[in-house]
């Protein structure tokens, strides 16, 4: 019985360590890719599309 408890605890520890490494890897990849900018300001985001549309609207606006 104690053997299986040891195996179970070992497996839980291994899975926890692997999950932590994956999460840290995702965090560092995001920092390397985007810097400290939030995700909403990343290229191709909705905020970028709205800003591009507003800029186009300003350029094509003719008050006359």
Automatic annotation (TrEMBL):
- Record keywords: Membrane, Transmembrane, Transmembrane helix
Entry annotated with the keyword Transmembrane: yes
Has UniProt tagged this entry with the keyword Transmembrane? yes
Looking at the UniProt entry, the stretches that span the membrane are 7-32
Protein name in the entry:
Uncharacterized protein
Species per Swiss-Prot/TrEMBL record: marine sediment metagenome
